[in-house]
Amino acid sequence: MSKSSPSARERIVAGAADMISRRGLNATSIREIAKHAEAPLGSTYHYFPEGKQQLTTEAVRYTGEWTARSLRAELRAGPAAGLRAFLALWRKIVVDSDFRAGCPVLAVSIEESAIDEMPATLAAAADVFATWERLLADSLREHGAEPDQAAQLATLVVAAVEGTVAMCRAKHSTQPLDHTADQLQALILAAIKD
Fold first, then answer.
1. pLDDT value of residue 2
2. If DSSP codes are grouped into helix, strand and coil, which group holds residue 107?
3. Do 64 and 124 form a contact (C-beta atoms < 8 A)?
4. 61-192 CATH, one of 1.10.357.10, 1.10.357.140, 1.25.40.10, 1.10.10.60
5. Over the stretch 115-160, which tens digit does the pLDDT of each residue have?
6. What angle do CA 32, 36, 42 make, to 5 degrees?
7. Beta-carbon neighbour count of residue 128 at 10 Å?
8. Domain residue spans in the chain?
9. Which of 3, 61, 64, 92 is the most exposed place for a label (fewest CB within 10 A)?
10. Residue whose C-alpha is closest to residue 150's, from 131, 162, 135
11. Cα 10 → chain centroid
12. Spatial distance between the Cα atoms of 93 and 87, rounded to a whole number of angstroms
């Protein structure tokens, strides 16, 4: 049985996430998102009657869940495997986009919105980061890390990877990711040793 193609709404949300990852929040318009998603502009407003805030909030949540799904699956093999998968996911994004795409969750977190109506988008970004941290911290604790150390290390992993993705884009190189991967791996292995 073949997998059904995504609905117009799903294409628009995925297109918004992709555009934000490449251009940032302020440089991404609803019109450009519709064109990028190959969807009629009218359907964009039909699915997202609250406009850009609703669409960008859903794009952030979409990215968060897509990443969390991968992370959950890999964390079953332990925190080191989860870290490798998290890093591989972002490596693939930056390399496949020729260093043009980063993380839309980070993008909405660091940009001042052009309008003063983006608190829902920023709150969604905070929730996404918290989910990624929680998944990592839970895995670390399950594999022997002390609770406080697990929480702090999970925050460090998310912050380091997000910052490293930005560095990879700026340097047009995966070297920052390689350096970060080595150090985070060492910290995780030290935290879960008996």
1. 40
2. helix
3. yes
4. 1.10.357.10
5. 555 588 999 999 999 999 999 999 999 999 999 999 999 999 999 9
6. 65
7. 25
8. 61-192
9. 3
10. 135
11. 17
12. 10
